[in-house]
Design brief:
Length: 414
C-alpha cells in the first residue's frame, strides 16, 4: 500500500506555509522537493568525507571517491545501464544533450544529413540540434502531434529516412505529459542506421526507465527533478558509441598523460568529466535513487495517475478552462497544462500563490509548442509527484475556481 503520509513526513518543506496557507507544491516538472534522506546525505558528506575525488591517497579522498563511484553504480543500475562507466556525471539534462551535440554530433552529422525531433521538445532538446544543423548544413525535421496531443507516429515513420543520423526525442513532455513510445522510435531509427537520443528529464523521475530494453543510444536526465539537488545530472551512452566519442571539455581529471605538446585521455567515464565535479550532488543523487527505489517507481507512477484522473475529472467541471493533453492516462504522466479564457496564466499563478498553491506559468521552455501548436501565449501548469495528495488536487481546483470568480469569469459547467 502506498503510504502517502509516510512519504510526506520525509519532506521537511511540505510543513511550511505560504501566504498563511499550507504549501501545495505542484511545480514538480520544474524541480522536485527533497526528502530528508537526500538532504542528510549532502550534510553527511560535508561533515565527514569532504575531499576531492580520484586524486588523493589520503583517507578522506578515498572515501569521497568510493561514495562518488558508488552513486554512479546506483544511478546506472536504476536505469539498467550495462556498466556504471556508461553514466557520465553532468550538471543537468541541458548539459548532457549539449555534450552529445558537441562531441558525437559534430563528428557524425554532416551536410545533407537529417536530425528528427518532435514539436513538443523542451528548448534543451531543440536548440542544440538547430545550432548543429545550421553549422553543418544538416536538416532539422519536425514531427508533430496528432489530434489527441500524442506524437504523430505515422509522420515520425515517414520523416525517418536513410539520411537520418539522429532522432532526438522527449520521453515525456513537460507541457502535455505525453509519453512517447521510445522502443518503437528506437527501432525505426536503428532500421536506417540512425541513433536515438532520449530526453528523459521528465521520465526517469516518474517511470521505470530501462535503457537496454528501450534500446536508446543516449539518455539525458537531471537530478533535481528526481529528489536530488540542483547542479547534478547524467548522460547515459551505449558503450560502443561512448568509446568512439571525443571528450567534451579538456583539462584536469580527464587526461592520462600530458606533455607540453600533447595529451592523451583517461579511461571512461573520466574522459568526459573534466575538472572537479559536483561530488556532493552525485552522492545525493545516489541517495535520491535509493529513496525512489524503496518507495517504488511503479507505485509512484500509479499514485500520480490517480491524481491526474482526479484532476482531469474536476477540471472538466470548470467552464472557461481548457486542459491540454490526452485523456489516455496510459500515455500520460502527471503534468497538466491549462488555460483560462480571458485570464493571463501569470495572473492566475499569482492568485493561486496567494492560496499557497505553487504552479508554473509561461511557455515552459517549449515556446514553439505552446505558441504554434497550442495557440496560446502561455499556459498554467500543475505537475504532480510522489508526495502530492488528492486533497491537494482539490485545493488546486478550488483555487482555480476562486480565481475565476475573482477575474469575473463564470466557473462551473452545469
Ligand atoms: N527536457 C525536459 C523535458 C524538461 O522538462 C527539462 C526541464 O524542465 C529539461 C529538458 C531541461 O532540464 P535542466 O534544466 O535540468 O537541464
Amino acid at each position: 500500500m502506498y503510504d502517502i503520509q509516510t512519504v510526506r513526513a520525509d519532506f521537511p518543506v511540505l510543513n511550511r506555509k505560504v501566504n498563511n496557507k499550507p504549501l501545495v507544491y505542484l511545480d514538480n516538472a520544474a524541480t522536485s522537493q527533497k526528502p530528508k534522506q537526500v538532504i542528510d546525505s549532502v550534510s553527511n558528506y560535508y561533515c565527514f568525507h569532504n575531499s576531492n575525488v580520484h586524486r588523493g591517497v589520503h583517507t578522506l579522498s578515498v572515501e569521497a571517491t568510493d561514495l562518488y563511484e558508488e552513486a554512479r553504480q546506483k544511478v546506472g543500475s536504476f536505469i539498467n545501464s550495462k556498466k556504471p562507466e556508461q553514466v557520465i556525471w553532468v550538471r543537468n539534462t541541458t548539459e548532457a544533450i549539449n555534450l552529445v551535440a558537441k562531441t558525437w554530433g559534430e563528428a557524425n552529422i554532416n551536410n545533407g544529413d537529417e536530425i528528427v525531433v518532435s514539436e513538443m521538445e523542451h528548448h534543451s532538446n531543440l536548440v542544440p540540434w538547430q545550432q548543429l544543423a545550421e553549422k553543418k548544413g544538416a536538416k532539422l525535421k519536425l514531427v508533430g502531434l496528432d489530434s489527441d496531443y500524442k506524437l504523430d507516429l505515422e509522420q515520425l515513420h515517414s520523416e525517418i529516412s536513410n539520411r537520418t543520423r539522429l532522432v532526438a526525442i522527449t520521453h515525456m513532455s513537460n507541457v502535455l505529459g505525453t509519453i512517447t513510445p521510445i522502443k518503437e522510435i528506437a527501432t525505426a531509427a536503428h532500421n536506417v542506421g540512425a541513433k536515438i537520443l532520449v530526453d528523459a528529464a521528465q521520465s526517469v523521475p516518474h517511470l521505470n526507465v530501462d535503457v537496454q530494453d528501450l534500446e536508446c543510444d543516449f539518455l539525458a536526465f537531471s537530478g533535481h527533478k528526481m529528489l536530488a539537488p540542483t547542479g547534478i545530472g547524467c548522460l547515459y551512452v551505449t558503450e560502443e558509441i561512448l568509446s568512439l566519442m571525443d571528450p567534451f571539455m579538456h583539462g584536469g581529471e580527464m587526461v592520462l598523460e600530458v606533455s607540453f605538446e600533447k595529451a592523451s585521455w583517461a579511461d571512461l567515464p573520466m574522459r568526459f568529466e573534466a575538472g572537479t565535479p559536483n561530488i556532493a550532488g552525485a552522492i545525493a543523487m545516489g541517495s535520491a535513487v535509493d529513496y525512489l527505489k524503496s518507495t517504488g517507481v511503479e507505485a509512484i507512477h500509479a499514485h500520480e495517475t490517480s491524481l491526474m484522473k482526479h484532476a482531469l475529472g474536476l477540471f472538466d467541471d470548470l467552464e472557461e478552462v481548457t486542459c491540454f493533453g490526452t485523456k489516455d492516462l496510459e500515455s500520460r504522466g502527471g503534468v497538466i497544462s491549462f488555460a483560462v479564457n480571458g485570464v493571463h496564466p501569470h495572473d492566475l499563478g499569482q492568485v493561486l500563490d496567494s492560496q499557497g498553491v505553487a504552479i508554473r506559468t509561461g511557455h515552459h521552455c517549449a515556446m514553439p509548442l505552446v505558441r504554434s501548436r497550442l495557440n496560446v501565449p502561455a499556459t498554467a501548469r500543475a505537475s504532480f509527484y510522489l508526495y502530492n495528495t488528492l486533497y491537494e488536487v482539490e485545493a488546486l481546483i478550488s483555487a482555480v475556481d476562486s480565481a475565476l470568480s475573482y477575474f469575473g469569469r463564470s466557473s462551473r459547467n452545469n
